[in-house]
Amino acid sequence: MSQSQTRTSFIIIPSMILALTILFCIKKNNATAASHQQKEVASAMEEPTFYPTVGDSKYDVIFAKEPSFISQKFDFPVGKPDGTNYFKAREFGQSKHLGEDWNGKGGGNTDLGDPVYSISNGYVSFAENVCCGWGNIVRIVHKFPNHPEYPFVESFYAHLDEIHVKEGDFIKRGQLLGTIGDADGKYSAHLHLEIRNFVDMGVGPGYSDDTFGFLVPTEFIEKY
Length: 224
Prior knowledge:
By secondary structure, the protein is of the alpha+beta class. Helix content is 29%, strand content 26%. Strands 1, 2, 3, 4, 5, 6, 7, 8, 9 and 10 form a 10-stranded antiparallel beta sheet that branches.
């Protein structure tokens, strides 16, 4: 073999190897992409995805996934459904009070540990102990369909002795959420109940001249 032929062979053989390597890689990448695509299609068929539309709040998305927890009716949180054997020790607006205080008819601490129920179907957005006289608090967001003013309301239960739900739970009307407490011994046992038409506000002081975002609990429950 001549010297020129030898040089040509050294050029052609590596070029062929390189070409075959590139072809193999392309086929492998195509096969991998096809496999991923098949898995994505299979996953989509197994579990349909909810895609929120522009303007949806996070609670629209939450209740779209669990429509059986949308509210239809509201009850009282103690002595369900109508507050039997309980009375309001402090009204909404009394001394600038932003909620209602519910006590058992026996007074004092006779209602300590009594059950507290969710006033309606909803989503538990908060369930924690809070400082400075609040004690254990549970907050529940209720989707309120077809209301002309507010699509959501929030019920707020404070001074609880025990909490039986956690953030992220869905809850039904009349379901146990906790028990009546005394805010870690700060007060005589009672339930502080608020209903808000502006959800996710701060915990707040419980008393204020400004009632923006707050509804009168008894009026609201009796109406709906």
